[in-house]
C-alpha cells in the first residue's frame, strides 16, 4: 500500500498530542505562550526526548516514538550492562516504569521469553540480552501479534500429520545453521516464511526486513516461534533496522 507523507510520519498524531498537551498546560499556567510551547514540543520530538515520562499509549503510538524510547532506556540504564548486573523480568519492568509509569508487564514477559525460551519470570538476564530482545519485541510488537497467529494456524493445520515434510536447510559458508527448533511445537520454516512474507507485504506498520526474515528462516528446516524471535533478536541487522 502507498501511504501519504502525513500518514507515514504520523503528523496528525503529533499535532493532536501537541494541542492536548498545550491545553493541559494552559490550565496550570494560563500565561503559557502557545507558539513557544508548540515549538518546544516539536523540537523535543525531533531530538527524540519527547517520550520520557509519557504514558504507554503515547510511547508506542509511532515508530519514531518507539525508537526514541528504546534509546532513552539504553542511555538511562546502560550502566547496568557495564556493571554486569543480572535482573529478572519484574526488575526490568521496574526500570521501564521509571521512564513510563504504566509500562505493561505483559510486554516485558514477552521479552523475557525470547531470552529465556521459557515463562520462568524469576530467571536472571543480562542487560545486553534483555535490551536486544526488548527492542525487537517493543518495536515490532504489532507485527509479531499477527505473526504468532499465523504460526498457531500453521501448527494447528499440520499437528494431525505424523509425516512431517523436512525441507533441506540452506548451506552457509560460515559455521552451522542455527538450531531454530525441531521439537513438537515447530513448523516448517519455508511455510512460515511464505506466510510471514505475505504479512509483510500487506502490513501497514513496522516489520522486520524481509531479507533478514528470509536469511533466518531459510537456514533451518523447522522453527519454533520463540526460536525464530531469539534468532531475530541476535541478528546484527535488526539493531540497525529498528527505526527505519
Per DSSP, the total helix count is 13
> Could you describe the largest sheet, including whether it forms a barrel?
2 strands, antiparallel
Strand order of the largest sheet: 1-2
Kindly state the number of beta strands.
Answer: 4
State the domain count.
3
What does this structure look like?
The structure is a single chain. The protein folds into three domains: 5-47; 63-139; 141-241, no CATH class. Helix content is 62%, strand content 3%. The protein has helices at residues 5-8, 11-28, 34-47, 56-59, 63-83, 89-99, 105-116, 127-139, 141-158, 189-202, 210-217, 225-233, 236-241, and strands at 86-87, 125-126, 187-188, 222-223. Helix 5 (63-83) packs antiparallel against helix 8 (127-139). The chain starts with a helix and ends with a helix.
Features:
single chain, 244 residues, mainly alpha, 3 domains, two-stranded antiparallel ribbon, 13 helices, 62% helix, globular, disordered N terminus, cytoplasm, cytoskeleton, microtubule, phosphoprotein
How would you summarize the topology of this molecule?
Elements: H1 5-8, H2 11-28, H3 34-47, H4 56-59, H5 63-83, E1 86-87, H6 89-99, H7 105-116, E2 125-126, H8 127-139, H9 141-158, E3 187-188, H10 189-202, H11 210-217, E4 222-223, H12 225-233, H13 236-241
Antiparallel strand pairs: 1-2, 3-4
Subcellular location: Cytoplasm, Cytoskeleton, Microtubule organizing center, Centrosome, Centriolar satellite
InterPro entries: CSTPP1 (IPR038968)
Protein name: Centriolar satellite-associated tubulin polyglutamylase complex regulator 1
